[in-house]
Amino acid sequence: MAACKTIIGRYCAAVVVIAACMIATGCRKDSEEGNRAHHDSSATAKPVATADGTHDHGLTTKLDVAPESGAIPFGVPTLLTLTITDAKTGRPIEQFDSAHTVLMHLILVSTDLTWFNHIHPEYKGNGVFTVTATFPRAGYYALYADYTPHGRSQEVPQYEIEAMGVGKPAKRLVLKPAPDTVGAEGWMLKSVLSAPEGMPGSPGGSRYTVAMMPMPEKLTAGKDVMLHFQVRDAKGKPITDLEPYLGAMGHAVILSSDTKLYLHAHPMESGMSHDAMKPGAPMDSGTEADRGPNVIFHTNVPSPGYYKIWGQFQHHGKIITAPFVVHVE
Questions:
Q1: Which of 243-257, 259-273, 282-296 comes out lowest in average pLDDT?
Q2: At the topology level of CATH, where does 2-18+175-328 sit?
Q3: Does the pLDDT at position 48 exceed 90?
Q4: How far apart are CA 97 and CA 147, in angstroms?
Q5: What is the rounded CA–CA span in Å between residue 232 and residue 272?
């Protein structure tokens, strides 16, 4: 563990692309204030909040979400339309800056955090994005639209949408780390199947073991942390030919158990000095030139609590998504 602390101290100043947005579920605003979306009742806007829970008026845009027609069904493909306008003038936002090869990252998560999807809507112009999504079951889902209007800062508004068929919100998942997922030398291990992008749970994927080690092992709110992932095949052999996924060797999405805090991190782009099997040995970090098996993310979680982390990687044209739960003191 002393070696891990040394690593943190040496590399926490590395330049990393991290998108963070603190989101709360507080009271909804009236439409006269311009903060409530005018769309089908199955998609309801949620106000954004700062780390201390107060409303954040820093958003310069307004996001409206609508199903193709009526309430969103579950179990069948549904066209979602996302419209982005200026929060003050109501005019459509015409231009967006690309972030990791796309104009928008759209994260869909069931409110119990058991289902996750990362997709990329197509820009149609005039502030309108569209994408087809299939929600696996009736219930409520959190939607995070991650985009950067041209000439402005990155923004991540949240919506809560309902796949019809339920009368009340799904229960929130009480997250607790699973002791049986901790392997040798402190690694947390998950066995997962790959799937085509945007199609989690599709049959025909290959099996992988994904290992994750937080560094330091004890996570503290407001302190820098590195999330060290290693991708292995089903037999435990490290994968050394990972493929770039959206311009990076991986993506990590982090959500608090109540879905109020969201972070989207990308891999470090410098060499590291910690190996999965032999601490202190040289290793690669996760640039396109470094094809695995190690991918390192640097982040900082501002608030204590339980968090779920989804690490995503690409191999043989399919996406490997591995979920982990950690506790931050």
A1: 282-296
A2: Immunoglobulin-like (2.60.40)
A3: no
A4: 8
A5: 19
At 95, which amino acid appears? Answer: Q
For 9, the enclosing helix (H) or strand (E) is helix 2-11
Alpha-carbon gap, residue 191 to 291, rounded angstroms: 20
DSSP code for 23? B
Enumerate helices (H) and strands (E) in the chain, giving the number of each.
1, 19
Whether 191 and 209 have beta carbons less than 8 Å apart is answered as yes
CA atoms of 97 and 63, how far apart (whole Å) = 16
Q: Which sign, positive or negative, has the C-alpha torsion 89, 95, 98, 102?
A: positive
Which carries the bigger pLDDT value, residue 258 or residue 130?
130
Strands (E), the chain: 18-22, 43-45, 61-67, 78-86, 96-97, 104-110, 116-119, 122-125, 128-133, 139-149, 158-163, 188-193, 207-215, 224-233, 251-256, 261-265, 294-300, 305-315, 318-328
DSSP strand pairing (251-256 vs 224-233): unpaired
What's the pLDDT band for 94 if we cut at 50, 70, 90? very high
Same fold, 2-18+175-328 and 34-163: yes
Question: What are the extents of the domains in the chain?
Answer: 2-18+175-328, 34-163
pLDDT of residue 19: 39
The answer to whether the beta carbons of residues 82 and 37 sit under 8 Å apart is no
Cα→Cα distances 66→50, 117, 127, 234, 270, Å: 26, 18, 14, 41, 41
Predicted local distance difference test score (pLDDT) of residue 156: 93
Residue type for 238, please?
P
Q: What is the mean pLDDT of residues 13-31?
A: 35
**Topology of the domain comprising 34-163:** Immunoglobulin-like (2.60.40)
Assess contact for 313 and 229: CB atoms under 8 A. Answer: yes
Whole-number average pLDDT of the chain: 76
**Residue 218 contacts by C-beta under 8 Å, 6 or more apart in sequence?**
329
Q: Write down the residue that tokens 């190996």 correspond to.
A: 275
What is the separation of C-alpha 214 from the centre of its chain, rounded to a whole number of angstroms? 17
